[in-house]
Amino acid sequence: MTSVGIDAIEIHTGKLKLDLAETFAPEMGDDPEKYTKGLGLHASSFPDAYEDIVTMGANAAHRLLERKGLEPADVGRIDVATESAFDNSKPVSTYIAGCLEQVYDGDFHHANKGERKFACIAGTQSLDDAVNWILAGRNRGRGALVIATDTALYARDSSGEATQGAGAVAMWITEDPDIVELSTEQGYGSADETDFLKPNQQFPSVDGKRSMQVYLARMRESLQDFERATGASHPDDYAFIPFHTPFPGMVRKAAVLGYRHMIRGTDIEEELAADIGRQPRRERFDSDDAFEDAISEYVDGLTDTDAYREWYDAAIQPTLSISSQVGNWYTGSVHLARFSALKHAAENGIDLAGKRLLVASYGSGAQAEIHSETVQDGFTEAVAASTIDEQIEQRYDISFAEYEQVHDRHNHEKSVELEPFTQPDAEFVFDGWGPMNERKYTYVE
Ligand code: CAA
């Protein structure tokens, strides 16, 4: 069977940084540790005045095409995933193609373009569409550009304001990829939920606490469904488990539940039984409540065991490093988590080639999807080419007053003028409005 997956990844972070502990927490009257320890977030990225979902996506895609030495004729699809779109008809992928055509001789007239929407899981769904297109043999030797781009802004003074972020992840999907091959097996957990939604409005209506419960419930369903296709999973099966990461604290909650599920009936449960007992089984309890209480107690104990801590430090913690510095990028978030893990392995000489990742995506509204990926020989080189560390380091650190201006600048109802804090350099910038209220872009040398 043809091997299809991700051949290259490029990341573009919004160029501004809001320090959550130093700048945001004091203004909110919060203890800084709510952010650094509770949520696991140190900073959020924001777009400068000339950045938006199009510029961030186009800049990531441009770097990717340049690095791989690709021309427009090599690209058979451009799929954009976003939940920050500003047009209900014209897709962001056409704007991004228009930007790229400013800097290439050829054009993308024969590339199929689209926009995927299902909250944060749309990035993974676009990846899926691209893989299926190649597996179906419809690509005529060409690859697919998948771009997840978002400005995850929440209304001022809402609880979600703590978990904002902005950036784009561009992925190049081909046969015989350099980074990861995707499994054909997938598991889904999907239900009609109203935990987080944007009914024709820019900023989400969100029930934060409920959204966390829905995330965990759908993840669990999708793992069960995945196991129907693959058989039981064991923690040793996967080198890393990148989760959708709205904030690292959410992943902490999901990881321990996943670990509990995977060790049930295994040698690990057996070894831990002397310390924390066996996992509660439903048939031994008179009521759901009593069973749930026993599970909570078991999970608390499990979290404190050496076996769990060692697994978490090896398989989960490395997936969180970029997120903790940039916040939630919605559709790009799980792809940042995968990249963080690969980067950690490359930097620490961990030989991942041939090893598997279990990738756990989630979108509010709500759906989770789980599949596995096999890491390819070329991953170290592909990851080493990334400039994400420099980009994170070079962000302009905004004050709280500047943050208020930036939020207003990107609020579609206000869209106030704002002098940029940074200088564009060899990149696409937002350049004002056209006669049909379309957004205009230029490449700045
Ligand atoms: N020291 C250490 N920890 C502290 C602390 C301190 N001084 N103060 C608070 N904390 C801990 C809290 O105990 C809590 O941790 P636990 O949940 O483990 O108890 C954590 O820090 C956050 O504190 P709060 O619960 O008080 O924070 P909050 O009420 O401001 O809300 C939130 C947090 C609900 C996540 C909110 O930020 C929100 O609504 N975010 C947007 C929705 C979201 O991201 N949901 C996630 C699932 S949905 C999804 O994944 C899709 C998506 O991308 C949006």
From TrEMBL:
Keyword flag Transferase: yes
Annotated CDD domains: init_cond_enzymes
Superkingdom of the source species: Archaea
Keyword Transferase tagged: yes
Biological process annotations from GO: acetyl-CoA metabolic process; farnesyl diphosphate biosynthetic process, mevalonate pathway
Record keywords: Acyltransferase, Isoprene biosynthesis, Transferase
EC number(s) per entry: 2.3.3.10
Chain ranges of the Hydroxymethylglutaryl-coenzyme A synthase C-terminal domain: 195-420
Residue ranges annotated for the Hydroxymethylglutaryl-coenzyme A synthase N-terminal domain, each copy included: 3-175
Pfam families the UniProt entry points to: HMG_CoA_synt_C (PF08540), HMG_CoA_synt_N (PF01154)
Enzyme class: transferase
Family classification: Belongs to the thiolase-like superfamily. HMG-CoA synthase family.
NCBIfam families according to UniProt: HMG_CoAsyn_Halo
Protein name: Hydroxymethylglutaryl-CoA synthase
Native source organism of the sequence: Halobacterium salinarum (Halobacterium halobium)
